[in-house]
Amino acid sequence: METNSRLCKPAGDLTIFEAAEFKESLLEVLGNEGLVCLDLSQVKRVDTSAIQLMWAARKLGRVLVTNIPHDLDSKMAQLGFTEPLSE
After folding, report:
1. Are strands 7-9 and 2-4 parallel, antiparallel or unpaired?
2. How many alpha carbons fall within 13 Å on the CB side of residue 5?
3. Which of 13, 53, 71, 80 could form a disulfide with 45 if both were Cys (CB 3.0 to 4.6 A apart)?
4. Distance linking the first and last C-alpha atoms of the chain
5. Rounded to the nearest 5°, which phi and psi values hold at 28?
6. Is 51 among the domain residues?
7. Global pTM?
């Protein structure tokens, strides 16, 4: 998982098995001031635990989510999320 002061770029699966590491990466970038980027271009599979973490980060109002996989959009719609992940 690539991170720097304003970027979190996970790769591979984001499931319950990777949730703790993903949460730590999100907290690391969110600890900085201003807008941060969550780049999902390298994500292969996402489950509900990762969606919950991304949605909680979204509520802070300063997360730009890019390269959202189509299947994640579909999964979120199935779960009843009608607003986009990114502000």
Report:
1. antiparallel
2. 3
3. 13
4. 23
5. -60, -50
6. yes
7. 0.85
CATH of the domain at 55: 3.30.750.24
- Residue 56 placed within a domain: yes
Per-residue pLDDT of the chain (87 residues; tens, 9 = 90+): 555 678 999 999 999 999 999 999 999 999 988 899 999 999 999 999 999 999 999 888 889 999 998 888 888 888 888 888 876
Where helices occur in 1-87 by DSSP H, the ranges are: 19-30, 48-58, 70-78
Question: For 44, how many CA atoms within 13 A lie in the half-sphere containing its CB?
Answer: 5
